[in-house]
Automatic annotation (TrEMBL):
Enzyme's top EC category: transferase
Major localization class: cytoplasm
Species: Clostridium aestuarii
Subcellular location(s) of the protein: Cytoplasm
Protein name according to UniProt: Probable butyrate:acetyl-CoA coenzyme A-transferase
Length: 446
C-alpha cells in the first residue's frame, strides 16, 4: 500500500465513540442506502440520546437495526426520514420515522440541489485498497452525491461487504473523506429468495410468453419477478441483458444458467448494470469482484432517458392495487405506508420508451384479509392510497387472468381490459361501478 495513503488513513482513523461526538443537536445525519447504511455509528449515536435533541437521520432503506429510533420512541432526540421504507423501517413509521417521497433517479439531484444540507454523512464501505480507495460495496445509489455535499464525511469499514466493480461512482478515495471508523464487521443484511406461488408462476408465464432473445431485464422485488427469473433460467431464451435498480438472486439464477451475456445491449454491452444489491449471502458472493457486473449511481441506472436507450427493455414490477382508470398503487394500503415509489415509475416510463420495450405491472387479482377475499382491481383506489404510477404512464397490467393493455386506450377500453383480468367473482360488480362512473359503453361485453 502507498505509504502516503497509509499515513492519511491513520490520521483520519477514529473510534466510533469519537466519530459520534461530531453530531450536534439539530444536525441532519445521512446514512448511505440499503446495506451500506450505518450499523456501528448508529449504535454509538443512540448512547448520546440524553445529550442531543432534534437530530434528523435520513436513509434509503435502513438495512440494519435502528438503534437511535429504538432508543427514542418519542422522536424528540432522534427522528428518521426514509427515502424508501422496508424491513426495520416499517416498525417506526408514524412514530419516529417519516417517508420522504421521491422518484429514485432524482435522489442524487435532490441531494446536490434541493435538500436540507447534510451535516454528517456516514457510509459503510469495504477496507481501503492499495490505491487509497474504499468501495461502496453493494450500494452506489447516491454515495458520491452525499460525499460532495456533506460537511463531514465518515466511513464505517466492514470487511464483509462485497467489492463491487464499476461502472462508475462505486468508490471513494481516502483524500475525499474526513474520518474513518473500523467497524465490528457485522454480518450483512440478507433477504431470503422469495419462493413464487402458483399465482406468481401463472402471472410470470404471461410475461415469459412475450419475451424473446436479446431482451434486457429489470426485475422489482417480490414473488412474480423471482418467478420470471427462475422460469427464464429454465427456458430456451439466450443473449439476455441486465439493466436494473436492484440486483437480486433471480439474476444469479439466470447467470448461472447461461442466459445472460449482454451481447445485444445497445449500451453497456456485456455488463450487468445495477445500483444496489440485496439478497442472499450466495448473491453477495456472486457479485464480489465480478467483472461481468457494473455498479453505478441511481441517477444513471434509473434515469428514464438512459433506460430508453436500451432496445428491447423489459421492466417487471409489482403493485398493491389499482383502479379502473389505470392508476397503480404500489406503496400503501390506503393511508398506511408500506414502501415508496422507488424506481418503479422510472422503469415504467423508461421501458415503454425503449425501442421494442415493454413495461409490466403485476399483481394477483385478489387479496385475502382476515378470511375475506377482496379484489385488487377496484373502481377507485382505497381512499388515501398513493398513486405510484399515474394512469398516463402505465403500459401493461398482469394478473393470473392475463394482460391488460393501458397505453393508447380510452377510459372505457381501460375499464374493459382491466375487468377482463379481474377475478371472475368480482367482474359483474366492477361492470356496475364502471357504468356508474360513466366509463362503460353499451357495446361493451355484458
Amino acid at each position: 500500500m502507498n505509504v502516503r495513503f497509509k499515513d492519511e488513513y491513520k490520521k483520519k482513523l477514529v473510534t466510533v465513540e469519537e466519530a459520534v461526538k461530531l453530531v450536534k443537536s439539530g444536525d441532519w445525519v445521512e446514512y448511505a442506502a440499503t446495506i451500506n447504511s450505518s450499523h456501528d455509528f448508529d449504535e454509538a449515536l443512540s448512547k448520546r440520546k440524553d445529550e442531543l435533541w432534534d437530530v434528523k437521520i435520513r436513509c434509503d432503506i435502513g438495512a440494519y437495526y435502528h438503534y437511535t429510533a429504538e432508543a427514542d420512541p418519542s422522536g424528540e432526540h432522534f427522528v428518521w426520514s426514509a427515502w424508501h421504507t422496508a424491513g426495520y423501517d416499517r416498525k417506526y413509521i408514524g412514530k419516529n420515522l417519516y417517508h420522504c417521497p421521491q422518484k429514485l433517479h432524482e435522489n442524487p439531484m435532490m441531494t446536490r440541489k434541493d435538500c436540507i444540507p447534510t451535516n454528517v454523512a456516514v457510509i459503510m464501505v469495504t477496507p481501503m485498497d492499495k490505491y487509497g480507495y474504499f468501495n461502496f460495496g453493494a450500494s452506489s445509489v447516491s454515495c458520491c452525491a452525499m460525499i460532495e455535499t456533506a460537511k463531514t464525511v465518515i466511513l464505517e469499514v466492514n470487511e464483509n461487504l462485497p467489492r463491487c466493480l464499476g461502472g462508475f461512482q462505486e468508490n471513494v478515495h481516502i483524500s475525499q473523506v474526513d474520518y474513518v471508523v473500523e467497524g465490528k464487521n457485522v454480518p450483512l443484511c440478507t433477504l431470503p429468495a422469495v419462493e413464487p406461488n402458483e399465482i406468481d408462476k401463472k402471472i410470470a408465464s404471461y410475461i415469459l410468453g412475450r419475451m424473446y432473445d436479446g431482451n434486457c431485464i429489470q426485475l422489482g422485488i417480490g414473488g412474480v419477478p423471482n418467478a420470471v427469473g427462475k422460469m427464464v433460467a429454465q427456458s430456451d431464451l439466450k443473449d439476455l441483458g441486465v439493466h436494473t435498480e436492484m440486483y437480486a438472486d433471480a439474476y444469479v439464477d439466470m447467470s448461472k444458467a447461461g442466459k445472460i451475456n449482454g451481447s445485444r445491449k445497445t449500451i453497456d454491452r456485456y455488463k450487468q448494470v445495477y445500483s444496489f444489491a440485496m439478497g442472499t449471502q450466495e448473491m453477495y458472493e456472486f457479485i464480489d469482484d465480478n467483472p461481468g457486473l457494473a455498479s453505478c449511481p441511481i441517477d444513471y441506472t434509473n434515469d428514464p432517458k438512459v433506460i430508453a436507450q436500451i432496445d428491447d427493455m423489459i421492466s417487471i414490477n409489482a403493485a398493491v392495487e389499482m383502479d379502473l382508470f389505470g392508476q397503480v398503487c404500489a406503496e400503501s394500503i390506503g393511508t398506511k405506508h408500506l414502501s415508496g415509489t422507488g424506481g418503479q415509475l422510472d422503469f415504467v416510463e423508461g421501458a415503454y420508451k425503449s425501442k421494442g420495450g415493454q413495461s409490466f405491472i403485476c399483481l394477483p387479482s385478489t387479496i385475502n384479509i382476515k378470511g375475506k377475499t377482496y379484489s385488487r382491481i377496484k373502481p377507485i383506489l382505497t381512499p388515501g392510497a398513493i398513486v405510484t404510477d399515474p394512469r398516463s404512464a402505465t403500459d401493461m397490467i398482469v394478473t393470473e387472468y392475463g394482460i391488460a393493455k393501458m397505453k393508447g386506450q380510452n377510459t372505457w377500453q381501460r375499464a374493459e381490459n382491466l375487468i377482463n383480468i379481474a377475478h371472475p367473482d368480482f367482474r359483474d360488480e366492477l361492470i356496475k361501478e364502471a357504468q356508474n362512473m360513466k366509463i362503460w359503453r353499451k357495446s361493451n361485453r355484458r
